[in-house]
Write a structure and sequence with these properties.
4-stranded antiparallel β-sheet; 8-stranded mixed β-sheet; about 25% strand
Length: about 325
Amino acid sequence: MNNDAILKVDGLKTYFNTDDGIVKAVDGVSFELRKGETLGIVGESGSGKSVTNLSLMKLIPSPPGKIMEGTAILDGKIDILKMNEAQMRELRGNKIAMIFQDPMTSLNPFLRISTQMIETVILHKKMSKKDALKKAIEMLDLVGIPNPEKRVFDYPHQFSGGMRQRVMIAMALSCDPEILIADEPTSALDVTIQAQILELIQALSKRLGTAVIMITHDLGVVAGMCDYVVVMYAGRLVERGTNDEIFDDPKHPYTQGLIKSVPRLDKPDVGRLFSIEGQPPNVIDLPECCPFHPRCNKAMDKCRTTTPAVTILENNREVRCFLYEGEK
C-alpha cells in the first residue's frame, strides 16, 4: 500500500440472495484513493458502481445483501468493513460523506434546511446549536447559495434542483470529511446546472483537500474531473489507470467501446456513433467466463469458459482481459 493512500479497498465482494439465485453485484473490486485525489468509477447501469460505494458506507440492506469478503482500510489502520453499526455512525458524515443522486429524496421535506444541516455538526463536532447554525450558514455561502442567512431557514421545496444539490454538498462537507462519495450527483439536473455542480465539487475538493470518489456513467465528467479511473462491468473491475492512460490508450475492449461511443468535438464528423452490441449480462449465478465475451469482437474460446484474472501492466495499470495475459 502506498503511504499516501487514505483508503485501500481490496477484494470487495457484495452479494444479494434472491429467489432466482445469488446476484454478485460486486465481485472482487480493488482500488486505492489518495488525499486530494478524484477517482472516477464508470460503467453501465447495473455494473456495480453504486453498490461498491454503498458497501463502503455499510448501507447495503441486509437481508438480502451481504458483504462477503474484502477489506477497506482507512488511514492505513481501520478496516471499515469490520466496524459495527455504532462505529459506522461515527464514521458516516464525519470521515466519509456521501452525496446521492436525487437531492429531493435525500432531504426531509418536513424539516427546515437549518435543522437538517446542524444535526450532523452537533453530533460529530460537539458544537452548540448556535455555533452549528453559524457553520451551516458558512457552508451554504461556500457552495454559492445567495442570502444564506435567510435561506438556511427555508424548506427543501423552496429550492430548485441545483440549489438542493448544493445544500447536499454543503451538508456533506460540513464536518470536513477526508472522503466525499458522489453517486451520480448531476443525473437529475439539466446540463448547465450539471457543469456548475461538478465545478463546485472540484473547486471545494482542491480547497479543502478532500478526496472524491465520483460514480458516473458519463465519460465527459470523468475526463474533466478525475485523476484515476476504475471501469466496472458486471460487478468486476475490468480496467484501472490514470485518466490519461484510460482515454489515450484504453486496453479492455469494453473501455474501448465506451470511449468510441462518445461524440468528439475535436475530430471531424465520422458518421454514426459507435455502439456496443448486446446487453449487459444477467449477474444471477453468472457462470465462469468473461462476462463481456458475448459483446466482444475480440473474444476467444477460453473467454467463454474461464474468468480472466487481473493483469498488472506498466505503471501498475490493471486490466482484466486474456488479450494481455502474461504481459507486464
